[in-house]
Amino acid sequence: MATKLRIFLLVVLAVIIAAAGAVYSVLAPCHRGEEAVVLDIYPNTSLSDVRQQLGGGIGFDLACRIFKYEKPRTGHYVIPARTSWLDAVRMLHNHKQQPIRLILPSLRTLNHLAAFLGEKLMADSADFASAFHSAALLDSIGYTEETLPSLFIPNTYEVWWDISVPSFIGRMLREHDTFWNNERISFARQQGLTPVEVATLASIIDEETANNAEKPMVAGMYLNRLRTDMLLQADPTVKFALQDFSLRRILHAHLVVESPYNTYINKGLPPGPIRIASVASIDAVLHAAEHPYLYMCANSDFSGTHVFAVTYSDHLKNARLYQRALNQRNIH
User: Which of 114, 267, 272, 274 could form a disulfide with 128 if both were Cys (CB 3.0 to 4.6 A apart)?
Assistant: First the structure.
């Protein structure tokens, strides 16, 4: 009898020790470093992949059994330092991912945007590119390939890393509608422009100057040309038409390229933005400077600013100074 009791007590003790070990395992920190662990889970990520990335052991396995965590859900997870295996797996099981800060820049083309988003989000760049060139999708949201760049407003957004391409476009539509509030729409109407046209002119201004203080002057000059039925004659539109953004000097041979974007041969604005316009340039169009200038030329001091003229003869003087400066620097 004493022997049986002793065996029973030993079994109970072993069970208690095993239970205590299991409790200790799942409550132990999944990593002991001082920094959080970042885990990105893709659609094809398996449970064993997650285990390996976290360096999991018995604590991970037991926590998975407790929560019946078998199939990882996509997402961007940030596991704080010294989080227990129990809490880490609970976070994964409950899909408690952390949004990312997406800083959407002013980019030149939709393909550049697709490549950028493919690096920042789970969706592949090819998926974004396909959507941006999908006639059916564009038609459903009221855009064309030419006008689509006007949808995107450069800003910082909090988004889920695993957001789908359609959901991302839907988010951008909502952000666009928020940006184009009644006040901005009213200013656009005062300029005789739609939001798409504002973004189109703003994109040209972005290519003309990086000097935000000068942008309202440039906007006023182009608006003066539009209102007097003059050709815009904007060099950046020629670069876009040629799809050669490396050109440092626009020559006569470039000006005759057949393209609806070539504002040297087509009156009015091009069919759409030649890049994703910055907020600074959009607001410069909405609050353009009022002046009589119809011409502008890059400053011969290469400061990145421009000199403006009312008459063509004065403009030619400014242009000759700039051309001389280009020749002196062997820029052809």
Answer: 114
